[in-house]
Amino acid sequence: MCLAIPGQILEIVDAEHRLAKVDVAGVRRNVNIGLLDAEDESVGVGDWVLIHVGFAISRVDEQEARATRDLLERMGADYERELEELKASVIE
C-alpha cells in the first residue's frame, strides 16, 4: 500500500531541482516539491505537505497534517511500513 503522508518542510536544499528536506514523524528525507510550483503560491520552509513516492503532492495546513498523521498511525502496520520505506529512500 502506498500512502500520502504529511511532512513539514525544514529547508530548501536545491532550489534549481526543487528539492526540500522534509520531516515526517522524525524521519528526514529530501523530497521533490516541484509539483506544487503550479499552484498560486509555491511552498517553503515551515509549510506542511502530503508526500507520495518522494514527491510533495499537496500543501496542507498543520491541523490537517496532524489529523492525517493521527489517522495513519491508527492504521498500524501499513503506516509503519511506509515510514520504513521512507527511511530507506534517498533523493539527492
Structural description of this entry:
The structure is a single chain. This protein has 92 residues and is α+β, with helices and mostly antiparallel strands. It has one domain (5-88): SH3 type barrels (Roll). 27% of the residues lie in helices and 36% in strands. Strands 3-2-1-4-5 form a 5-stranded antiparallel beta sheet. The radius of gyration is 12 Å and the shape is globular. The mean pLDDT is 85.
Q: In brief, what are we looking at here?
A:
The protein has two helices and five strands, in the order E-E-E-E-E-H-H.
Count of domains: 1
Tally of helical segments:
2
**What class do helices, strands and sheet pairing give?**
alpha+beta
CATH topology call: SH3 type barrels
Average pLDDT number: 85
Number of strands: 5
Strand content: 35-45%
- Shape, principal axes of CA atoms: globular
Q: Which runs of at least 5 residues are low in confidence (pLDDT < 50)?
A: none
- Most strands sheet: 5 strands, antiparallel
How far the N terminus sits from the C terminus, by CA atoms, comes to 24 Å
The helix/strand series, from N terminus to C terminus, equals EEEEEHH
Rg (CA only): 12 Å
Strand order of the largest sheet: 3-2-1-4-5
Q: What is the CATH class name?
A: Mainly Beta
Oligomer: single chain
CATH architecture: Roll
Percent of residues in helices comes to 25-40%
